Structures
1.
Amino acid sequence: MPVTIDDRTTVPGDARIRALHERLAPSREALRLVWTHCRIVCDIAEQLLETSGADADAAVVRAGSLLHDIGVYRLYDAAGRLDERNYVRHGVLGHALAREAGLPEVIARFCSRHTGVGLTPVDVRRQGLPIPAADYTAVTTEEHLVMYADKFHSKTTPPAFVSAASYAVAVQRFGVDKADRFAALAERFGEPDLPALAGRYRQPIV
């Protein structure tokens, strides 16, 4: 079901979200990497929203896409190195940053609800993840859509688009249930036109 926001002014626009990225980014390189990724996820999510006909709030999907990875900035050290070991914390960190910035909970949740295909308390404890053992699974249609769109692009070096087939193979290492969840998302929303996006951003598809 789509999320409901009574006061439309609570949905932040592009300028406010971009300003938050600029304030939090520790360097121009970090800003370029994370902001470009968020823009790409937004493009994917909006494309899927249109082609799937999903009943979702387009403004909320856009805001959630552009905001979802702000927690990554908190994982850079003074030398500009990203803490890959604790990368899973970026969702929880981003959620807190969004709330501190005055954004509503319904928007901040995109930060903590997009990792993988959703993390449960059991996942956190079983994998020994450095985050509180809580429920980080998507609930609304908008959260599911942004989480799914995020799977099609990676901030690797160099950044790249990820095909549905590649992600389906990769997610299997986390369990059959995770692979099934990704397959269900693909059935629900379809697959994006990655060649068109890869050409626009001049990045490869892996």
Note: The radius of gyration is 16 Å.
2.
Amino acid sequence: MLEKIEIQWLICFQAVYDKLSFKLAAEQLQLPMSNVSRHVALLERQLDVRLLERTTRRVTPTAAGKQLYQSITPLTQSMGQVLEEVSLFGDSLSGHLRIITPDLPFMADILADFCIKHPQIQLSCDTQLAPTEGLLDGFDLVLRFGRGPLEDSSWVAKEILRWQSCIVVAPELLERHPLPQSIHDLSKIPCITSVSVLQGMPWRFKQNQTVAVQSSYKVNSGQMAKAAALKGLGFAILPLHACELEIDNGFLVKVDCLVEPEDLVLHAMYSGGRYSQVKVRAFLEHLQLAIKQLDINEDKITK
């Protein structure tokens, strides 16, 4: 029986089953709808059983169709993974790679170099700091910042970079507000926070502690937060490497509140609901190798 079945027939059947539409399945497979319909019909004829009931308004799987779909899906997924892995032995890594990443200076060269190394990869990259949960479904890989424990998600999270952080303040602001003696004192003084990323407020500290701070200056940029801190607009949490020079030169004062802020972490997130795509794993390996070759204390890595 197996030798009489073409793999394309099964792929078309799966797509129609998933979309409950021949039109949408054809769009997904980038095939004429007539071809998709013919492949499903040939599969049904060879099996001598109706797999999908069609009407002018909808497509409904039959009991036989449901059983076939549940049985072949793990097999076709495994087959796809094996084929992608085998392709890595050559120079033919290909496909559409969709990524969301913060607009980091070092990421531009890393992405370009990956596509030069794999010319058959089609890249779509969106630069966002805080993509909404629903948006993630259209992407293969999401790079995002976080502090403290990650929220529950069906996505797999892999740590890429970690920066020790500290609280800083301009000396002129200390003339109006004394140095806080504990993290709870931060709730009474002006602070610089993010608009949407890193959970904005409250500020997160190690030992699982949080503080709700006051903020009239909110930005989704470490550089903007640093500039505002230098001008005395508020206390700020910054990666230590990004403000060491200003601390050493006396333009900023490092605040010791007994408990350190949570580290700033760049995570790579990808779907755990399906097998890990080879192109995603290949890019993550490329990304980690490239970052190892960079000096993480240089300004080009600064958020």
Note: The domain at 165-262 is CATH 3.40.190.10 (D-Maltodextrin-Binding Protein; domain 2).
